[in-house]
Amino acid sequence: MEQRLSDYLLEQVDLFNTDGVNTSAKDRDAQFYLGRIAEELIASREGFTDEKFGILEKALLNSPEITEGEIDRVLSCRVLNNVPKMVKRLTKMSKLNALRNPSVQSAIYIQEAARTYIYGFMQSSTAMSRAALEQALKEQLAHQGTGAFIDFQALVDKAKKWNILGKNMARAVRESAKKADRVLHEAPTDESGAFEVLCDVRALLQKIYDSEGGF
Prior knowledge:
The protein is mainly alpha-helical. It folds into 2 domains: 5-83, no CATH class; 93-210, Up-down Bundle (Four Helix Bundle (Hemerythrin (Met), subunit A)). 73% of the residues lie in helices and 0% in strands. The protein has 9 helices and no strands. It has helices at 5-18, 25-46, 54-62, 64-91, 104-119, 122-140, 152-161, 167-185, 191-210. Helix 7 (152-161) packs antiparallel against helix 8. The longest helix has 28 residues, at 64-91. It is elongated, with a radius of gyration of 23 Å. The chain starts with a helix and ends in a 5-residue tail after the last helix. The mean pLDDT is 89.
């Protein structure tokens, strides 16, 4: 199999790090510590950190170009290393196709549910899958953009009334929402759990936008 672009680019990163020549032990040590500083700075922006990281802020303030350059390198490597997994996640997903296309507002939720899964953000994907399902029901019931709060169960009941959802489909919609709610309110999911919710929701969305019922 031909070399993939992500592999080639990672090789170029290695060459970039060494400028194509053998680096000294001192240079390797300096790069190692710069990398550690960049990793810790990234972690300090992604979540809570301890007071010991005050030194990292000083490093960023005193040498912004060097520190930002190292953060650029670390993030670039993270993305490139993740590309093969992203490709596999994307290629195992099926296409979406229905009689009607969703509104721009609904499409954003549907697209981001897929993208966050592809990029490996499983909690976000589950949350966006739940939101996409809710937005689709709101759209079909002419509630989207009204600013009015409507309970999810009320949306499902109304969708059944207007033949957007059949009995079995309404049950499936509620079950998918419950799976997502458990993730949002109780415990994080893994990749297989996020994929299950995403696939269930995408299948339901196709049926919702294929439905001849409407408000």
